[in-house]
Amino acid sequence: MRNLSTLFVAFLAGCSCSPQTLVPPEPVLEPWDLSYLVDLDPSAVTDSELDAAATAAREHYIDRCQSLGVIYSPRRSAPGVVVPDQFGTGGDSALFTGYALAGFSLQYHDSLDPVTLQRAKEALGAVWWLTHAAGPGVIARQVFPLSTKEKWSYPTSSGWQKRIASGFVDESPTLTAPNGMSYPAGAYYTRATKDQLTGLLFGLANAWAYLPSERPMIASIVHDLREQLTKHNWKIRDQHGKNDTSADTVSGHLRLQFAALYRHTVSVSSSDPNRIKKALDDYIDRLVPSLGDLFNKFTNYQQYYAHNLRAARAFTVWLLEPDPEIKQKIANYYLNNVWKHVKHHQNAFFASITYAMGDPAVRSIAIDALKSLSLRPDRAWGSPYAGQTYGPQVGDVVKGCDKLWVLAPHLRKKTNYWTWTKAPWDVGSGIDKNGTQDNIRLDLFLPYALVKAFD
């Protein structure tokens, strides 16, 4: 033990807490030149400009980043194509369709705008499709219409051929949701994980809270999810009872997240008192930090996305909890096991959740981060610092000085879905000089809607 302690101290001593120097790119006369971003001042963005940017982000999402409510990364078949004419393969469509549902539900709560309500209903319908295309309660990572399959390069691309060979791709007939919405014959990909369920529950919880007219539909979805999960002993499985990922067990705080929503929906979907009692027992028993929470600090070094899953689960439980004392207990868990490790990261998603849970001082952190992100162009070229070596070592994280590496959000790497899942010092490996993708902009729209809903 003494030798291990000596090695650990020596290891920490080798960490200087001194960030590498980033070299500003030389300006070039090319469309992908992002050197101008380095000189922009996020604090110069006014509140009205941020509001306009959030509106534009929402419309960008509607126009380019979804199909029948299911989220997809927009792609271009050639650099000269102005408006994306293809979609990515949607590996996390279920997760972030849930986030989109949350965004529209929150915005409707703030605005009571009928157009926003319709968009929220479309996102809810997409969640139903994602959880029913392969069978009631079976989670598909993505689903799209067969009539426009060319947009997804289905089934000819190598990526699709690999998925098909894995046995987790199939096609579904025309389906009708409980609210009367109709969905065309489609192709879907299962092999779902805990991440996908987390996002779906996050969206359904916000919809339950802010779309009371849609509660029967939400209850139907949750009921079918529970039937499928209990059938397989709380493991995520496809319609054949199969999966090939280790991230498929619904336990711990994910099980708590599910129970927090189920306890509300069960009175609509079932009158069985034993089910209600089981949901409540699950709910209370899991209101404690896990042993793994002791190591959450190390998430700043790798697997940063795990903070997002913890935040989404905690917010779901907090949002749906009627007891003020337990509600505060949940908030304390989030503050001590997530926010404590990321409060210096200019992360608008985490800050907006902290603000919603009752800390008014954090509002400015969320807004400043969103002002920065609003400076990023729609086209996903990359970070102006892309390709440079940058970021703390594990010893710097242990010392708590990783905050010295944090970059403004508009200077970080491009992402397929969500800036806030990436470490705040990640600049990426290179610039996409073809600009094949667009930024989805849900990462601007959703945290802004969350802040406004709790103002």
Q: What secondary-structure arrangement, pairings included, does this model have?
A:
Layout: H1 2-13, H2 47-64, E1 66-67, E2 70-71, E3 74-75, E4 86-87, H3 93-111, H4 114-130, E5 142-145, H5 158-166, E6 169-172, E7 175-176, E8 182-183, E9 186-189, H6 194-210, H7 215-231, H8 252-269, H9 273-285, H10 305-320, H11 324-342, H12 348-356, H13 363-373, H14 394-399, H15 442-453
Antiparallel strand pairs: 1-2, 3-4, 5-9, 6-9, 7-8
Helix pairs in contact: 2-15, 3-4, 3-6, 3-15, 6-8, 6-10, 7-8, 8-9, 8-10, 10-11, 12-13, 12-15, 13-15
Overview of this structure, please?
The chain is mainly alpha-helical. It has a single domain, classed as Glycosyltransferase, CATH 1.50.10. Helices cover 47% and strands 5% of the residues. It contains 15 helices and nine strands. Strands 5-9-6 form a three-stranded antiparallel beta sheet. Strands 1-2 form a two-stranded antiparallel sheet. Strands 3-4 form a two-stranded antiparallel sheet. Strand 7 and strand 8 form a beta hairpin. The chain is globular, with a radius of gyration of 22 Å. The N terminus is likely disordered.
Brief rundown of the structure:
With 455 residues, this protein is mostly helical.
